Automatic annotation (TrEMBL):
It comes from Marinomonas piezotolerans. NCBIfam families: PRK00241.1. PANTHER family: NAD(P)H PYROPHOSPHATASE NUDT13, MITOCHONDRIAL, NUCLEOSIDE DIPHOSPHATE-LINKED MOIETY X MOTIF 13. Its cofactor is Mg(2+). Gene3D superfamilies: 3.90.79.20, Nucleoside Triphosphate Pyrophosphohydrolase. InterPro entries: NudC-like_C, NUDIX_hydrolase-like_dom_sf, NUDIX_hydrolase_CS, NUDIX_hydrolase_dom, Znr_NADH_PPase. The keyword Transcription does not apply. This is NAD(+) diphosphatase. It holds the Pfam family Zn_ribbon_NUD.
Amino acid sequence: MIEIGTATHPLPHADAKYILLAKQKVLTLDGEFLLSLYDFHPSSDMRSVYCGTFEDQDIFVCRFSQAPKGFDESGLRELLFETSDYYYGLLSRAHQLATWDADHQYCGRCGEPLTTKHAKEHAKICAHCNIRHYPRISPCIIVSVRKDDQLLLARPLTAPEGRFSNIAGFVEAGETLEQAVHREVYEEVGIRVKNIRYIDSQPWSFPHQLMMGFFAEYESGELTPAPDEIAEAGWWRYDDLPNTPNATSISGQLILAHVKALAESNI
């Protein structure tokens, strides 16, 4: 597990490990994404951010505008699904911090360049108006809905044919998490839910979400997929589900947990 409560941000050094990014790709050598300083040559366009410590080593994420020669390129989503839970949080944190660094080079209040990072936390301070800019985290809900012995699954317009998942969406300003569950389910498939129960959470670095997972039960309404978001939606018996995300994602974890709960209840 990566330790993030460090007091200072050290500079890159030879004993540290590095995660390299270029154009939304993770750079690897011989299948490894945790590299040493001797595996690459820093360039003038490279930006680095300190992530914390992992296995008693300092970790930095470095972003290049173009991938240096000699590296293989892996999509973050594919790499997250392929790696173990042990490295999931490390990769997620590194990508989110690199995104924050790239997206916050200028002050959002006055437009002046941000050149100073606070020594005790991940924050950029504008020397002109003194505002601090922290890494952005966007809260989202994702919910597995049950109706008797069936689970609600939907296929977004962006998903491939035959790939189904849970209802999910961003929390809006002024909402509680439970209100967001009610709203997103109704907006996307036209039904009302009840008995909402929090299950678990997961960082989702596309680019900076925190997914908060719930169970809920069907209350009323007919499934009516939102035409601008959902290609199709339906109810599937818990022991006869279509193609769903694997257990690396919180969507897959919620589905598996709900299936287990339904199977144990002997419905």
